Design the sequence.
């Protein structure tokens, strides 16, 4: 199945306790597409960049099966840019700079060839832009997943609530789930969020793993305990890419299969943080991914002997 | 196998967003023994109380198979007392009052009949008191587990490091593991803590579950996602009680069995927080515990299909 990815394609400056990386390739759509490309070679991106973006990086995406027809290139303009610095604990970060550039008046346009996509991943963006993509779909897709963040809850809650009605899967972190629902208990938060629209909810807890809520069932996936977290940038998007890439490739929305998708997403995120930027995501092979899946099995598997 | 439990038997005043409980029975040894009593009926307590402690509560422990010969009763003195108030998120609490009372000059005395204990759980106490118990053992036990906290790392680090050399299993929370080791990564923290003495390390992460590190293997147990957390007091001790009670009853230190012990400990902790004080821990039966074990299996079980 074809996976449509909407999100930023951007540059990042990243500073962690382990070093600095300047003007490296980033953006939600980049991480999502790279991660998903290990599961499906039929990925379509809707995004916008300036003419400052290296052709080699675009070509790299194309060779991984990523269709860039929906990637608008604005002549004479600059790509979205974010600069951030991580604290020593790697769980918190300060945004040092945000330059919207081409993103300021981004109007997504869905090419005709993208209409066949049945799996849609709306990466973190203004809710009205996410909605604009859904409005252009001529037939209902099988699955729409949406990632968002507290910033949109603070500044565009009404638009966010509107788009939530149209989607199937919401991915947010635990604090965002609490903010959106007004409930501290994640079980109660999930109940309220289901009522807002999404049948499925994935709560990302970073180093504490992820929870999948669906049809009165709960699944918990741990994060892999790592000796080194080098750069957490893009880990959430990488999770979403592995999760949706696996779902699109298997075209199976049973709870059993969604659990596997959460584990594949977690496995991809565990690779992402091992090097700066998208570096680690570009050098994986199937054996490495399988080996990591086995580590997840070992990590949580026990014989209850009941 | 007999389980020897060392720790406080005390009174608590507890305030949570859900209500108040005054002068209810608490203390690490109480929670540990109650929790362990669902696995073994051969439990021996070493502790100290004043003459203000209700005989009915002591009798209740005895009927659950808890030997109180090593419980000193100080005439004319008062039992240890703690008062605390939980924040709205239930993860943080303020200590409002601590009255050491009988604990101020506690000198633990091991009755002769306790010498047969092969499993020993040293609840959170001054490291020198934990050491005094180990010094009275006439033959090496099979397993010594120790619980401690940041307060002793701040005020009695040398004594703590001495007793760590003598134990097999350390149970602490994630922030304490980081403080003790000076490492942010829990994987690296575990390596350093193994070098301090304990072969096994259990890192308790509250609502985020628990990690077991042993012999280059890692096991992760989630916390059960709960709609209501009524009172977290004693959850860590209840975990330790279920963990050590199960180990003592099975007398099997294989990694597979220790994983089950971590899940049983997590299951007991998930009951503990459902009501004030030790209330929920007094009314369980085997069917409820088995049903909860099955919920843990469902929560993490997935078919990797590799």
Sequence:
């Amino acid at each position: 199945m074809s996976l449509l990815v909407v999100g930023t394609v951007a540059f990042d400056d990243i500073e962690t306790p382990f070093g600095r990386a300047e003007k490296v390739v980033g953006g939600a759509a980049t991480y999502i597409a790279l991660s998903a490309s290990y599961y499906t070679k039929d990925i379509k991106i809707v995004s916008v960049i300036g003419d400052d973006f290296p052709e080699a990086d675009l070509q790299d995406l194309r060779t991984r099966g990523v269709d860039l027809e929906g990637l608008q290139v604005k002549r004479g303009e600059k790509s979205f840019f974010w600069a951030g610095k991580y604290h020593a604990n790697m769980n918190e970060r300060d945004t040092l700079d945000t330059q919207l550039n081409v993103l300021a008046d981004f109007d997504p346009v869905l090419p005709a060839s993208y209409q066949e996509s049945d799996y849609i991943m709306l990466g973190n963006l203004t809710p009205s832009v996410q909605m604009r993509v859904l409005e252009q779909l001529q037939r209902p897709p099988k699955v729409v997943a949406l990632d968002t963040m507290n910033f949109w809850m603070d500044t565009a809650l009404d638009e966010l609530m509107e788009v939530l009605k149209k989607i199937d899967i919401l991915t947010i972190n635990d604090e965002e789930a609490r903010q959106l629902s007004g409930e501290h208990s994640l079980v109660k938060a999930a109940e309220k969020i289901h009522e807002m629209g999404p049948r499925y909810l994935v709560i990302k807890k970073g180093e504490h793993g992820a929870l999948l809520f669906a049809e009165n069932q709960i699944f918990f996936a741990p994060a892999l305990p790592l000796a080194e977290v080098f750069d957490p940038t893009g880990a959430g998007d990488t999770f979403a890419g592995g999760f949706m890439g696996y779902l699109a490739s298997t075209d199976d929305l049973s709870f059993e299969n969604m659990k596997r998708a959460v584990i594949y997403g977690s496995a991809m995120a565990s690779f992402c943080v091992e090097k700066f930027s998208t570096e680690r995501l570009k050098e994986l092979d199937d054996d490495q991914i399988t080996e990591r899946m086995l580590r997840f099995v070992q990590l949580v598997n026990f014989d209850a002997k009941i």
Q: What stands out?
A: Chain B touches chain A at residues 88-90, 184-188, 205, 208-209, 211, 217-222, 225-229, 256, 259-260, 263, 290, 293-294, 296-300, 302-306 (CB under 8 Å). The mean pLDDT of chain B is 96.
